[in-house]
């Protein structure tokens, strides 16, 4: 039961018409609020990656920070934040990408990884895939190897998971919402 993806999926709240009409926002805050559910979620990722020879976990701003930092801690690894443009104080590299309702830019510190570091890339959700692909490109540009991209939720009808895989990036998601 506790490592069943349905256990996690059933605790994700859908908020209709947010942030704009027609969007079904998948809200993970109920997962985070319940200590048992949050532990189950974290354990799913920890068990998957505990013997993968990782060097770092990178999390995408902002909800990817929540899960990514906890998973990094549990795996005894360092954590790398990939932030929205203008939020990092040191020298950065940036990557612009398209969202399902606009465009954005993410950045990473130029010294966030060492050449050859094996990195797990985490975010909360895969929609169009732009954020995850941009984050992976940043990690690659500074010399890291993305071992796998991971997220809690996949929205396969938006095509992001297929785009990520087409870029040669392995992808793991806990659950998906399709046609709802």
TrEMBL record:
Keywords: Cytoplasm, Glycosyltransferase, Purine salvage, Transferase. One of its GO terms (molecular function) is adenine phosphoribosyltransferase activity. Transmembrane segments: none annotated. GO terms for biological process: adenine salvage; AMP salvage; purine ribonucleoside salvage. InterPro entries: Ade_phspho_trans, Adenine_PRTase, PRTase-like, PRTase_dom. Belongs to the purine/pyrimidine phosphoribosyltransferase family. This is Adenine phosphoribosyltransferase. The lineage of its organism: Bacteria, Pseudomonadati, Pseudomonadota, Betaproteobacteria, Chitinivorax.
